Amino acid sequence: MSVLVGDETRLVVQGITGSEGKFHAERMQEYGTNVVAGVTPGRGGDEVLGVPVYDTVKEAVREEDANASAVFVPPAFAGDAVMESLDADIELCVAITEGIPTHDMVRVNRRLDEVDTRLVGPNCPGVITPGEAKIGIMPGNIFDSGNVGLVSRSGTLTYQLVDSLGRRGVGQSTVIGIGGDPIIGTSFIDSVRAFENDEDTDVIALVGEIGGSDEERAAEWIDENVTKPVVGFIAGRTAPPGKRMGHAGAIVSGSGTGTAESKMEALRDAGVRVAETPAGVADEIDDLL
Amino acid sequence: MRLHEYQAKQVFADAGIPTPSSEVVETADAAREAAERIGGTVAVKAQVHVGGRGKAGGIELADDADEAHEAAEGILGMDLKGKHVEKVLVEEAVDFVDELYVGVTTDRGEGRAVAMVSSEGGVNIEEVAEENPDAIARTHVDPAYDLRPFEAREVVYGANVDRETARDVTGVLSTLYELWDERDADDAEINPLMVTEDGGVVAADAVFNIDDSALYRQEELAEMEDEAFEDDFEARASDAGFDYVRLDGNVGIIGNGAGLVMTTLDLVDHFGGSPANFLDIGGGADAERVQAALELVFEYENVDSVLFNVFGGITRCDEVAQGINDALEAFDELPEPLVVRLTGTNEEEGRELLTDRVETAEGLEEAVKRTVELSGGDGE
């Protein structure tokens, strides 16, 4: 069993005729993901990378039985592209696009309450089950199949941790990049719940950063619901208050909320082993296995 | 993007929210003339994006035009928490009997707007939220229905606002929500909303922050952008398209991806060093971008050593190494030692390509320790 993606995934790539969409659709095909269609309004009837292009997501679902989507649409149109996936009863929508207006995400977030679709992202590297399939932009070659479930708000930091694990011979069951934006679909809690219920996952790694309170909420949930060991890491301990550290969501507010300390403390209180360095995370996990 | 107080007040006033009469000026002489026109006691307020302006000396009361001149002379040109003051707002001082807080902000945890009113206005609302959360009445707004009038009333009555004033405050809250909604705001706040003796309300301060990602469709507001960078470095980084934050330490840091760069800063601190900056070079590290990043980081006089830490994913390490080599040709001599750490796709080819003008390291921790040592720290 895998979390979110696997052999049963039938992916439609929204924005497949754009340079990013096409580039990554090809990388996903190479990795073994079953890309069944692309969508670009106005380009229906074309063929790209050996798959048919449709004008709408609903057509791709009807004609190709697509059950997952990846959004590579420019930010001004990406909120609408996600909405289109939700309306087409896509099971899993992964939004890669960075820079979607927050208010567009407020409406998407509201719509998510009414549909069964799981949204990952936006502004995220995507989801990968090593050896099976990936939906996203992560370099597939650095991942190995194994029993660590990893969830993270950051892209390259995730790659760094996966690399640290790889050097110790530790692989991953599934890696979920939930994204660095203020409003996102799948949360830490959703991801940890999926790993807790996944028989291929033995250890859970939670990689957070400053800003917001998702890590604190996750800590509370872990305390009450999780039986598997969890290792945590928080980036941004040295970030000054009031300064946005790259990610739109990564900012410690003036009153000191969203600090690395409060997140680390909440995780420790929930029984999570919190490491201070990426190598420390890998050591803790290695130790648990 | 943050609007200045005078800009936010203009937007709020255009939407029908009462504001004191005021003029924004750039010289002390103009401040005197403005004070004469307004008449009576005025407040002279620095227009910079800084919290706690009053305590920092950026707001003064003036009883007449001469005092306004004097106050403006003192405030104009001063550095307020690192921000240079170029404009002051000369504003009618309002007699008030009570101060309220009214605001609409995006609650990221809930993924929707929260509308708030508190009868404890005029003080730091974040402190009120922490120490006495019950003093703030609030409701989350369902974007499918927007802020319904009865919800606005519930919040205002929930904050124990006087009956005579409640109708006006409800109107202000509803208007702030409309502005939040239509103008892609992150925050639309008035603190304090002053209650006058006759029961009316006046916005004595105004905060209006707009989502940067939505500025393309908020042209009128985008034109008001007047972000005073703390220094030339941040302005240049912004032009080059880097996410850059200048810090107090002496270890320069360049990397790709916000999370990885933050982690690199943390590790420098962990191993006894002190970071000089945060710089996310973003995707694609071609020679031009690498050179711009190196120049920016080296130019900061604090810097004693620099770590270039890139995880090559889709961008291969050999491409990054080539970019670094090409960029180094622009330097006759490197001002300070440079440690390069490349990991990921084609990392060995990348390391082999690098010239001997830089030090290389394989592991992240190893690279950080070495850079800290070169900065004069012990790397432990």
From TrEMBL, chain A:
The keyword Nucleotide-binding is annotated on this UniProt entry: yes
Residues that, per the record, bind CoA: T17, G18, S19, E20, I96, T97, E98
A Gene Ontology cellular-component term: succinate-CoA ligase complex (ADP-forming)
Top class in the EC scheme: ligase
Domain of life the protein comes from: Archaea
SMART domains with a match to the protein in the record: CoA_binding
Binding site for substrate: Y159
Keywords annotated in UniProt: Ligase, Nucleotide-binding, Tricarboxylic acid cycle
Domain CoA-binding: 4-100
Catalytic reaction annotation: acetate + ATP + CoA = acetyl-CoA + ADP + phosphate; succinate + ATP + CoA = succinyl-CoA + ADP + phosphate; GTP + succinate + CoA = succinyl-CoA + GDP + phosphate
SUPFAM superfamilies named in the record: NAD(P)-binding Rossmann-fold domains, Succinyl-CoA synthetase domains
EC assignment: 6.2.1.5
Active site: residue positions: H247
Cross-referenced Pfam families: CoA_binding (PF02629), Ligase_CoA (PF00549)
PROSITE patterns, per database record: SUCCINYL_COA_LIG_1, SUCCINYL_COA_LIG_2
Molecular function terms from GO: acetate-CoA ligase (ADP-forming) activity; nucleotide binding; succinate-CoA ligase (ADP-forming) activity; succinate-CoA ligase (GDP-forming) activity
GO BP terms, alphabetized: tricarboxylic acid cycle
Pathway the protein contributes to: Carbohydrate metabolism; tricarboxylic acid cycle; succinate from succinyl-CoA (ligase route): step 1/1
Function: Succinyl-CoA synthetase functions in the citric acid cycle (TCA), coupling the hydrolysis of succinyl-CoA to the synthesis of either ATP or GTP and thus represents the only step of substrate-level phosphorylation in the TCA. The alpha subunit of the enzyme binds the substrates coenzyme A and phosphate, while succinate binding and nucleotide specificity is provided by the beta subunit.
HAMAP family: Succ_CoA_alpha
PANTHER family reported in the protein's UniProt record: SUCCINATE--COA LIGASE [ADP_GDP-FORMING] SUBUNIT ALPHA, MITOCHONDRIAL, SUCCINYL-COA LIGASE SUBUNIT ALPHA
Sequence similarity: Belongs to the succinate/malate CoA ligase alpha subunit family.
Description of how the protein assembles with itself and partners: Heterotetramer of two alpha and two beta subunits.
Name of the protein in its database record: Succinate--CoA ligase [ADP-forming] subunit alpha
Organism encoding this protein: Halorutilus salinus
TrEMBL record, chain B:
Enzymatic reactions: succinate + ATP + CoA = succinyl-CoA + ADP + phosphate; GTP + succinate + CoA = succinyl-CoA + GDP + phosphate
SUPFAM superfamilies documented for this protein: Glutathione synthetase ATP-binding domain-like, Succinyl-CoA synthetase domains
Domain named ATP-grasp: residues: 9-221
EC number(s) recorded for this UniProt protein: 6.2.1.5
Database matches in InterPro entries: ATP-grasp, ATP-grasp_succ-CoA_synth-type, ATP_grasp_subdomain_1, Succ-CoA_synthase_bsu_CS, SUCC_ACL_C, Succ_CoA_ligase-like_bsu, Succinyl-CoA_synth-like
Domain of life from the UniProt record: Archaea
Pfam families: ATP-grasp_2, Ligase_CoA
Binding site for substrate: N256, G313, I314, T315
Protein name, as recorded: Succinate--CoA ligase [ADP-forming] subunit beta
One GO-annotated biological process of the protein: succinyl-CoA metabolic process
Oligomeric and partner information: Heterotetramer of two alpha and two beta subunits.
Cofactor dependence: Mg(2+)
